[in-house]
Amino acid sequence: MISTKDITGLILAGGRAQRMGGIDKGLIPFHGKPLIESAIAKLKPQVQTIVINANRSITKYATYGYPVVMDETPDFSGPLAGFSVGLKACRTPYLLTSPCDSPLLPNNLAELLAVEMGRGDFQLVYASSKEADGKVWAQPVFCLMRSNLQDSLDQFLQKGDLKIDRWFKELRTSTVVFDDPLVFANVNTPDELKKLEEVSA
Ligand SMILES: Nc1nc2c(ncn2[C@@H]2O[C@H](COP(=O)(O)OP(=O)(O)OP(=O)(O)O)[C@@H](O)[C@H]2O)c(=O)[nH]1
Ligand SMILES: [Mg+2]
User: Fold this and answer.
1) Region 4-199: CATH code
2) How much is the average pLDDT of 173-185?
3) Which of 20, 78, 82, 200 counts the most CB atoms within 10 A of its CB?
């Protein structure tokens, strides 16, 4: 059984946030508090400790009391660059990832992904959401992986590939479908931020 103490939570706050006007998304207020505080509050009870991946505002992110790791590549090459430095900083057997811009992330994310991880010989289990129309969508930035995947990921990135789904295809993976699509709602634009505040008031 994988327990809370076996898991480090990695919050991905390293993107450019271009659709948000290029400001640092993790620090935008959501219900009056920086978005990242919602992610920290949701993840904290689910993991032993947290690591923040950011490429800007490092001093500000550091005030939350967790290690802040920057991408090793300076070109904003996507979330896998964050996974890579998160795996290097991880001191537990498992790493759970979540973006900084999904403030309603599931309270049972770690629990359900860990149960699935224990059901088979999997290396990584990612979340999927069931939308109102019944369609199932992969939510690959919400995933639980074995922390020994560092070499696999670095070899993949060295090939020049950045696509998360192509890395997953190299691994033994499974998924867990969450029925409430709202828990993965993410804010990419000021308008989406406003709408999500309204529905989660
Ligand atoms: N470490 C790292 N994380 C990234 C990078 N690009 C995106 N992410 C993270 O991946 C998650 C999903 O990315 P997006 O929703 O596209 O966020 P974004 O790239 O900041 O926003 P846009 O520039 O508008 O696409 C977010 O948590 C981002 O912080 C990157 O180059 N490096
Ligand atoms: Mg992006």
Assistant:
1) 3.90.550.10
2) 95
3) 82
CA angle 90, 73, 149 (to 5 degrees): 35
Separation between Cα atoms, residue 2 and residue 25, nearest integer Å = 32
Say how far apart CA 96 and CA 77 lie, in whole Å: 20
- Residue whose Cα lies nearest atom 27 of ligand 1: it is 99
| pLDDT tens-digit map of 7-55 | 999 999 999 999 999 999 999 999 999 999 999 999 999 999 999 999 9
Nearest protein Cα to ligand 1, atom 21: 17
Average pLDDT over residues 172-190: 95
Q: ipTM of the predicted structure? A: 0.95
Is the pTM for the entire model greater than 0.90?
yes
